[in-house]
Amino acid sequence: STFKIITLLEFMREYPEEYRNFHYDCNGVLEQGDYTIQCYHKTAHGSQNLEEAFANSCNGAFAAIGMMLDQKKLSGTTRELLYDQNLPVPLSYSKSVFTEAAQDDTWQILLTAIGQGKTQITPMHSAMITAAIANGGTLMKPYLMDHVVNAAGETVKAFTPEAYGNLMTASEAEALGTMMRAVVTEGTGSKLKNDQYTSEDYWNLPEGTREELIDGKFYDMAPPSRIHQRLVSKLTSVIDQYISNHHGNCQVYPAPFAVNLDADDKDWVEPDISVICDPNKLTDRGCSGAPDLII
Protein backbone atom coordinates (compact mmCIF):
# COMPACT_ATOMS: atom_id res chain seq x y z
CA SER A 1 0.00 0.00 0.00
CA THR A 2 2.98 2.38 0.23
CA PHE A 3 2.67 2.78 -3.56
CA LYS A 4 -0.52 4.73 -2.87
CA ILE A 5 1.84 7.63 -2.15
CA ILE A 6 2.89 7.62 -5.81
CA THR A 7 -0.69 7.18 -7.02
CA LEU A 8 -1.67 10.13 -4.84
CA LEU A 9 1.17 12.30 -6.14
CA GLU A 10 0.27 11.57 -9.76
CA PHE A 11 -3.40 12.33 -9.04
CA MET A 12 -2.41 15.69 -7.56
CA ARG A 13 -0.30 16.46 -10.63
CA GLU A 14 -2.94 15.52 -13.20
CA TYR A 15 -5.80 17.14 -11.28
CA PRO A 16 -4.16 20.06 -9.40
CA GLU A 17 -7.48 21.65 -8.44
CA GLU A 18 -9.98 18.80 -8.64
CA TYR A 19 -8.10 16.51 -6.26
CA ARG A 20 -9.06 18.75 -3.34
CA ASN A 21 -12.73 17.94 -3.94
CA PHE A 22 -12.31 14.19 -4.45
CA HIS A 23 -15.09 12.09 -2.94
CA TYR A 24 -15.67 8.35 -2.88
CA ASP A 25 -18.41 6.25 -1.26
CA CYS A 26 -16.81 3.00 -0.16
CA ASN A 27 -18.95 -0.08 0.45
CA GLY A 28 -15.92 -2.35 0.79
CA VAL A 29 -15.92 -3.55 -2.83
CA LEU A 30 -15.22 -1.75 -6.11
CA GLU A 31 -16.59 -3.34 -9.26
CA GLN A 32 -15.05 -2.16 -12.52
CA GLY A 33 -16.48 -4.07 -15.46
CA ASP A 34 -15.53 -7.72 -14.97
CA TYR A 35 -13.08 -6.92 -12.20
CA THR A 36 -13.48 -6.53 -8.43
CA ILE A 37 -11.20 -4.78 -5.93
CA GLN A 38 -11.84 -5.26 -2.23
CA CYS A 39 -10.80 -3.18 0.74
CA TYR A 40 -9.10 -5.05 3.55
CA HIS A 41 -11.61 -7.51 5.03
CA LYS A 42 -14.18 -5.83 2.77
CA THR A 43 -14.29 -2.94 5.23
CA ALA A 44 -16.85 -0.34 4.13
CA HIS A 45 -15.18 3.03 4.81
CA GLY A 46 -18.27 4.98 3.82
CA SER A 47 -18.05 8.55 2.54
CA GLN A 48 -14.37 9.45 2.01
CA ASN A 49 -12.56 12.57 0.92
CA LEU A 50 -9.02 12.14 -0.42
CA GLU A 51 -7.26 12.51 2.92
CA GLU A 52 -9.61 10.02 4.57
CA ALA A 53 -9.26 7.54 1.70
CA PHE A 54 -5.47 7.72 2.00
CA ALA A 55 -5.49 7.52 5.80
CA ASN A 56 -7.73 4.45 5.67
CA SER A 57 -5.80 2.89 2.76
CA CYS A 58 -9.07 2.54 0.88
CA ASN A 59 -8.38 0.23 -2.05
CA GLY A 60 -11.66 1.09 -3.74
CA ALA A 61 -10.93 4.82 -3.76
CA PHE A 62 -7.39 4.40 -5.06
CA ALA A 63 -8.39 1.88 -7.69
CA ALA A 64 -10.97 4.42 -8.88
CA ILE A 65 -8.26 7.09 -8.91
CA GLY A 66 -6.04 4.76 -10.93
CA MET A 67 -8.68 4.58 -13.65
CA MET A 68 -8.54 8.39 -13.92
CA LEU A 69 -4.76 8.55 -14.48
CA ASP A 70 -2.72 8.71 -17.65
CA GLN A 71 -0.55 5.60 -17.34
CA LYS A 72 2.34 7.09 -19.31
CA LYS A 73 2.41 10.13 -17.04
CA LEU A 74 2.30 7.83 -14.01
CA SER A 75 5.26 5.94 -15.47
CA GLY A 76 7.11 9.24 -15.88
CA THR A 77 6.46 10.14 -12.24
CA THR A 78 7.82 6.80 -11.06
CA ARG A 79 11.03 7.46 -13.00
CA GLU A 80 11.31 10.87 -11.36
CA LEU A 81 11.06 8.97 -8.06
CA LEU A 82 13.91 6.69 -9.22
CA TYR A 83 12.00 3.55 -10.16
CA ASP A 84 14.06 1.39 -12.58
CA GLN A 85 17.09 3.59 -11.88
CA ASN A 86 20.24 3.56 -9.80
CA LEU A 87 19.83 4.87 -6.27
CA PRO A 88 22.46 7.08 -4.57
CA VAL A 89 23.11 4.41 -1.95
CA PRO A 90 26.60 3.10 -0.96
CA LEU A 91 25.30 -0.46 -0.63
CA SER A 92 24.29 -3.34 -2.85
CA TYR A 93 20.59 -3.23 -3.65
CA SER A 94 17.98 -4.31 -6.15
CA LYS A 95 16.29 -1.73 -8.37
CA SER A 96 12.63 -1.00 -7.78
CA VAL A 97 10.54 -1.95 -10.79
CA PHE A 98 7.51 -0.20 -12.25
CA THR A 99 5.58 -1.98 -14.99
CA GLU A 100 3.49 0.44 -17.00
CA ALA A 101 -0.03 -0.81 -17.62
CA ALA A 102 -1.57 -0.33 -21.03
CA GLN A 103 -4.28 2.34 -20.97
CA ASP A 104 -6.88 -0.32 -21.80
CA ASP A 105 -5.58 -2.94 -19.33
CA THR A 106 -8.16 -2.32 -16.61
CA TRP A 107 -7.03 -5.09 -14.30
CA GLN A 108 -3.38 -4.00 -14.19
CA ILE A 109 -4.39 -0.36 -13.76
CA LEU A 110 -6.55 -1.27 -10.75
CA LEU A 111 -3.82 -3.40 -9.20
CA THR A 112 -1.02 -0.90 -9.83
CA ALA A 113 -2.94 1.99 -8.28
CA ILE A 114 -3.22 0.15 -4.94
CA GLY A 115 0.37 -1.10 -4.97
CA GLN A 116 -0.18 -4.63 -6.17
CA GLY A 117 0.31 -6.26 -9.55
CA LYS A 118 3.81 -6.25 -11.09
CA THR A 119 5.22 -3.12 -9.44
CA GLN A 120 7.97 -3.73 -6.87
CA ILE A 121 9.84 -1.44 -4.49
CA THR A 122 12.64 -2.09 -2.00
CA PRO A 123 12.34 -0.95 1.65
CA MET A 124 15.37 1.32 1.14
CA HIS A 125 13.77 3.05 -1.84
CA SER A 126 10.46 3.45 -0.01
CA ALA A 127 12.27 5.00 2.96
CA MET A 128 14.13 7.41 0.66
CA ILE A 129 10.92 8.64 -0.97
CA THR A 130 9.36 9.12 2.47
CA ALA A 131 12.45 11.00 3.67
CA ALA A 132 12.27 13.30 0.62
CA ILE A 133 8.66 14.10 1.47
CA ALA A 134 9.66 14.95 5.04
CA ASN A 135 12.52 17.08 3.67
CA GLY A 136 10.37 19.33 1.51
CA GLY A 137 10.82 17.26 -1.65
CA THR A 138 14.62 17.10 -1.55
CA LEU A 139 16.29 13.70 -1.45
CA MET A 140 19.45 13.54 0.63
CA LYS A 141 22.05 10.91 -0.20
CA PRO A 142 22.07 8.23 2.51
CA TYR A 143 25.41 7.71 4.26
CA LEU A 144 26.48 5.10 6.78
CA MET A 145 28.88 6.98 9.03
CA ASP A 146 28.65 10.39 10.67
CA HIS A 147 32.29 10.72 11.71
CA VAL A 148 35.44 8.78 12.60
CA VAL A 149 37.37 9.33 15.83
CA ASN A 150 40.77 8.11 16.92
CA ALA A 151 41.71 6.50 20.24
CA ALA A 152 41.96 9.94 21.86
CA GLY A 153 38.40 10.78 20.91
CA GLU A 154 39.46 13.29 18.26
CA THR A 155 37.48 13.50 15.04
CA VAL A 156 39.72 12.56 12.13
CA LYS A 157 37.06 12.53 9.42
CA ALA A 158 33.51 13.87 9.26
CA PHE A 159 30.87 13.11 6.66
CA THR A 160 28.45 15.87 5.74
CA PRO A 161 24.94 15.51 4.32
CA GLU A 162 24.69 15.92 0.55
CA ALA A 163 21.58 16.55 -1.51
CA TYR A 164 20.84 14.27 -4.47
CA GLY A 165 18.13 16.47 -5.93
CA ASN A 166 14.43 17.27 -5.82
CA LEU A 167 11.97 14.42 -6.33
CA MET A 168 8.96 16.73 -6.12
CA THR A 169 8.07 20.33 -5.34
CA ALA A 170 7.90 21.66 -1.79
CA SER A 171 4.14 22.16 -2.09
CA GLU A 172 3.66 18.57 -3.26
CA ALA A 173 5.75 17.32 -0.36
CA GLU A 174 3.74 19.42 2.08
CA ALA A 175 0.42 18.06 0.79
CA LEU A 176 1.67 14.48 0.88
CA GLY A 177 3.10 14.95 4.37
CA THR A 178 -0.22 16.23 5.66
CA MET A 179 -2.02 13.18 4.33
CA MET A 180 0.65 10.80 5.63
CA ARG A 181 0.32 12.27 9.13
CA ALA A 182 -3.41 11.52 8.98
CA VAL A 183 -2.53 7.82 8.57
CA VAL A 184 -1.11 7.73 12.10
CA THR A 185 -3.46 10.22 13.72
CA GLU A 186 -6.77 9.06 12.26
CA GLY A 187 -6.22 6.14 9.91
CA THR A 188 -4.72 2.66 9.73
CA GLY A 189 -1.74 3.55 11.91
CA SER A 190 -3.71 5.33 14.64
CA LYS A 191 -3.83 2.27 16.90
CA LEU A 192 -0.09 2.67 17.43
CA LYS A 193 -0.12 6.29 18.58
CA ASN A 194 -0.90 5.37 22.19
CA ASP A 195 1.17 2.20 22.31
CA GLN A 196 3.94 2.11 24.88
CA TYR A 197 7.38 0.60 24.59
CA THR A 198 8.56 -1.96 27.13
CA SER A 199 11.73 -3.45 28.56
CA GLU A 200 11.93 -5.81 25.59
CA ASP A 201 12.07 -2.85 23.19
CA TYR A 202 14.66 -1.10 25.37
CA TRP A 203 16.99 -4.09 25.39
CA ASN A 204 16.58 -4.60 21.66
CA LEU A 205 17.77 -1.11 20.70
CA PRO A 206 20.63 -1.12 18.16
CA GLU A 207 24.08 -1.40 19.68
CA GLY A 208 25.50 2.01 20.51
CA THR A 209 22.07 3.67 20.79
CA ARG A 210 21.57 5.61 24.02
CA GLU A 211 17.98 6.31 24.99
CA GLU A 212 15.95 6.37 28.17
CA LEU A 213 12.54 4.74 28.48
CA ILE A 214 10.18 6.81 30.63
CA ASP A 215 6.49 5.93 30.99
CA GLY A 216 6.75 3.75 27.90
CA LYS A 217 8.27 6.44 25.65
CA PHE A 218 11.81 6.68 24.34
CA TYR A 219 13.89 9.84 24.83
CA ASP A 220 17.18 10.34 22.99
CA MET A 221 20.28 11.02 25.08
CA ALA A 222 22.68 13.57 23.62
CA PRO A 223 26.39 12.66 23.71
CA PRO A 224 28.00 14.12 26.87
CA SER A 225 30.67 16.78 26.67
CA ARG A 226 34.29 16.19 27.63
CA ILE A 227 33.94 18.35 30.77
CA HIS A 228 30.82 16.42 31.80
CA GLN A 229 32.65 13.12 31.50
CA ARG A 230 35.63 14.48 33.42
CA LEU A 231 33.36 15.53 36.29
CA VAL A 232 31.57 12.18 36.30
CA SER A 233 34.92 10.41 36.48
CA LYS A 234 36.12 12.57 39.39
CA LEU A 235 32.87 12.29 41.36
CA THR A 236 32.72 8.53 40.85
CA SER A 237 36.24 8.21 42.21
CA VAL A 238 35.51 10.47 45.22
CA ILE A 239 32.30 8.63 46.16
CA ASP A 240 33.90 5.23 45.72
CA GLN A 241 36.86 6.26 47.88
CA TYR A 242 34.55 7.62 50.60
CA ILE A 243 32.62 4.35 50.73
CA SER A 244 35.87 2.37 50.89
CA ASN A 245 37.31 4.58 53.66
CA HIS A 246 34.18 4.00 55.75
CA HIS A 247 34.13 0.26 55.06
CA GLY A 248 30.79 0.49 53.29
CA ASN A 249 29.26 -2.12 51.03
CA CYS A 250 27.61 0.22 48.56
CA GLN A 251 28.65 0.04 44.92
CA VAL A 252 29.16 2.97 42.53
CA TYR A 253 28.35 2.78 38.81
CA PRO A 254 28.89 5.60 36.31
CA ALA A 255 26.86 5.79 33.10
CA PRO A 256 26.16 3.97 30.93
CA PHE A 257 24.40 1.92 33.61
CA ALA A 258 20.76 0.92 33.25
CA VAL A 259 18.40 1.63 36.14
CA ASN A 260 14.87 0.24 36.19
CA LEU A 261 13.57 2.88 38.59
CA ASP A 262 10.19 1.44 39.51
CA ALA A 263 11.14 -2.16 38.73
CA ASP A 264 8.35 -2.09 36.15
CA ASP A 265 8.29 -2.72 32.42
CA LYS A 266 8.19 0.84 31.10
CA ASP A 267 10.97 2.77 32.84
CA TRP A 268 14.71 2.49 32.21
CA VAL A 269 17.01 5.44 32.83
CA GLU A 270 20.76 6.08 32.91
CA PRO A 271 21.81 8.46 35.71
CA ASP A 272 25.32 9.89 35.46
CA ILE A 273 26.25 8.11 38.68
CA SER A 274 24.29 5.48 40.62
CA VAL A 275 25.05 4.28 44.13
CA ILE A 276 23.40 1.01 45.17
CA CYS A 277 23.66 -0.35 48.70
CA ASP A 278 21.18 -3.23 48.41
CA PRO A 279 22.90 -6.06 46.48
CA ASN A 280 19.50 -7.63 45.78
CA LYS A 281 18.76 -4.77 43.42
CA LEU A 282 21.73 -5.55 41.20
CA THR A 283 21.17 -7.71 38.14
CA ASP A 284 23.23 -8.58 35.09
CA ARG A 285 21.47 -5.75 33.28
CA GLY A 286 21.87 -3.06 35.93
CA CYS A 287 19.72 -2.00 38.87
CA SER A 288 16.14 -3.14 39.47
CA GLY A 289 14.57 -0.46 41.65
CA ALA A 290 15.70 2.98 42.77
CA PRO A 291 19.38 3.42 43.71
CA ASP A 292 20.22 4.90 47.11
CA LEU A 293 21.86 7.87 45.46
CA ILE A 294 21.92 9.19 41.90
CA ILE A 295 23.63 12.14 40.28
Q: Indicate the overall shape.
A: elongated
SS elements, strand count: 16
Overall helicity: 25-40%
What is the typical, i.e. mean, pLDDT?
A: 93
Report the C-alpha radius of gyration, rounded: 27 Å
Low-confidence stretches: none
Features:
3-stranded antiparallel β-sheet, 295 residues, elongated, 3-stranded mixed β-sheet
Please give a structural write-up.
- By secondary structure, this protein is of the alpha+beta class.
- Helices cover 33% and strands 19% of the residues.
- It has 9 helices and 16 strands.
- The chain has a 3-stranded antiparallel beta sheet with strand order 11-13-16, covered by helices on one side. The protein has a 3-stranded mixed beta sheet with strand order 12-15-14, with no helix packed on it. A two-stranded antiparallel sheet has the order 1-4.
- Helix 1 packs across helix 3 (59-68), helix 1 (4-14) crosses helix 4 (71-80) and helix 3 crosses helix 5.
- The longest helix has 20 residues, at 226-245.
- It starts with a helix and ends with a strand.
- The mean pLDDT is 93.
